[in-house]
Amino acid sequence: MSQFQRVLLVDAASGFYRLKKYGFDRYFGPVDLGIHMAEAYRSLNFGVGLFAGSIFPGSNRLMVTGYSPCWQGYYISSMGGAGLVFDNLGINMLSLVGKAPVPSVLFLNRNHGEEIEVEVVPVEAMAIWQSGRQGVYAMTDRVYEMFGQRYEKDPRILVAGPAAASTDMGGIMSVPINKGKISHVDTWAGRGGFGSAMVQQHGIVAIIYGGTSVNEDFRDRKVVDEWFRNKYNLHLMQKDLEVTTKYRYDEKLQTGGTFGVNYAGMGGRILAFNYRTIFWSEEERLALHQNLVLNHYLKQFNEETIRKKQQATCGEPCVAVCKKLNGQYKKDYEPYQTLGPLCGIFDQRAAEKLNRHCDAMGFDAISGGGVLAWLMDLLDQGVLTPAELGVKDKPRWTWSAFDVVADSLHNAALGCDLIDAILERRGILDFREGVRKWSRLHSRRKGVKLHDSLVHVAFNRRGWMVPNQYWVAGVLTPMAIMGKYYMIYSYDFIPPRTLGRMCAERMKQELILDNLGTCRFHRGWAEEMLPEVMGALYECKEAYQRAVSVLASRLNSRNSPIFWESERNIDYLHTFLKRKKTVDGETDPRLEEWLQRFATDKVEAAREFWYETLMGIDESLREFF
To answer: Is pTM, for the whole model, over 0.90?
Structure first.
């Protein structure tokens, strides 16, 4: 228990820095310590877990913690692989405080020895974003050009884009650099808008870091294999291959990655045209899935990406090879869902166009896609005019006459134009204080609730989050942190109070991984084994598990959920419940009771469902000491 974590505190305003140490008596990883730092210093924190650089697959995630400008509360985001190079700094966490007077790059380098070089260097951010490959890609190129030669080993660069300067949903992007070559494998800490926090609150548009390895990381394969044989009768690599099948290649489905596996088995659960498909018949949804997804969108992906084995890792050795590519375009399910079918796009060329522009501008793609789909919906309904949103066209969302290539490309072009309109604040668009506040202001002016068609989870006075892209009750639950997988996304019918309890337990399990900087794609063994490893190496299994429970309760104690403001949220849940009965044949009498309540008064029924879920959450997160 004498282990401690090293935190480098950097004041972006002055460039001054200092090192602080925190023992295991209270904090074990980048999440519980990061939340403490955010409370104590109002800092934005970047940290790695104890096993960064170790033999354990997936242990090199870079965890980002702080106060989210988008969620309006404490938040946790993460980025694959970026912790491997961070570990070479010889610290566990970087905490940013203060604000640089002009947009700047933070340079960190540890070249042997004990000292870390720290520099805050001003740059012409807007000019860089508008140059070369545009946005975050241009910033990556420029920062590497400025500082790359000063590193003995390949560094890593974290960058924000224009969205971080003018909205609350700017993400942080990074790509692995191998032998001086910048790759196309985007990795993102997108959720929570921490790019916006980095730029608007600290004046930092990029961070470049690296150094020479100074730590003796745990790499005893014989010991680890013995642990795994005792638990699973398999070696570590055998078990990891087993649990990461979905992300690599699933023989049964003849596809792989989150994009391939999710779309292959989606069927009538397809979400498209800003969730309008929840109102369709099962036959209509199945026809859309067959004709536009299986026969075209997924078919293109399988032919271009899976069969050609265009895949990579996030920057660390890993058998999951979850990054599925087509040239420079990385294909993950949720970005290619929100900036795909949700926006009326079912063609890979069109989806690549819109995803690339959204990424280049530095948006969290899931939030950005959800907002674009909502704006397109308002245009299609005639609630807002193209002139009001600073564009010239309306979407082509007529399913009966949909041209999968031409209409997808039209909708992608409109999406790109809307992105530019948001950044340039054309027409009435101004998302600097978030979409909820913008909608409230203009709903009063228009005399109609614009946000009735915005599917989102509301938090605090103006916090918001586009939910994960699964048609299930769990994605709209009133948890303290949403937009991540701190909830149950089961397709089963689960009574609300039980759902709340299960979400609370899921949050604890996810925090076991996050607080050790470990990727959830390896959760099939990591949730169970990592506490055991903490016990074997540091004699603190029970203390670590207790700390995670306390952390979950601490986060929940600040929970400020808002009952669903959007009618489509209510319809989202109601149609999910109806489908459980009519399509899945669920016979649980409690489901029938809820359906009767919704038939009588859907708003009151939704409120009761929401509050019962919240009760289940609150009664399950009560460990504060």
So the answer is: yes
